[in-house]
Amino acid sequence: MVYKNLIGGDWVGSDRFRRNVNPSDLDEVIGEYAQATAADTDAAIASAHAASDGWAVASPQAKFDALDFVGTELLARADELGNLLAREEGKILIEAVAEVRRAGQIFKFFAGESVRTGGEQLASIREGVDVEVTREALGVVGLITPWNFPIAIPAWKTAAALAHGNCVVLKPADSVPASAWALAEIISRSPMPRGAFNLAMGRGRVVGQRLVEDARVAGISFTGSTPTGRLLRTTATERGAKLQLEMGGKNPLVVLDDANLDVAIECAVNGAFFSTGQRCTASSRLIVQKGIYSRFVAALAKRVSNLRVGHALDPEVQIGPVTDEDQLRQNLEYIKIGQDEGARLACGGDLVDRPTRGFFLQPALFVDADNAMRIAREEIFGPVACVIPADDFEHALALANDTPFGLSAGICTTSLSYARSFKRRALAGMVMVNLPTAGVDYHVPFGGRKQSSFGPREQGSHARDFFTIVKTSYIG
Question: Is the whole model's pTM more than 0.85, yes or no?
Answer without folding.
Answer: yes
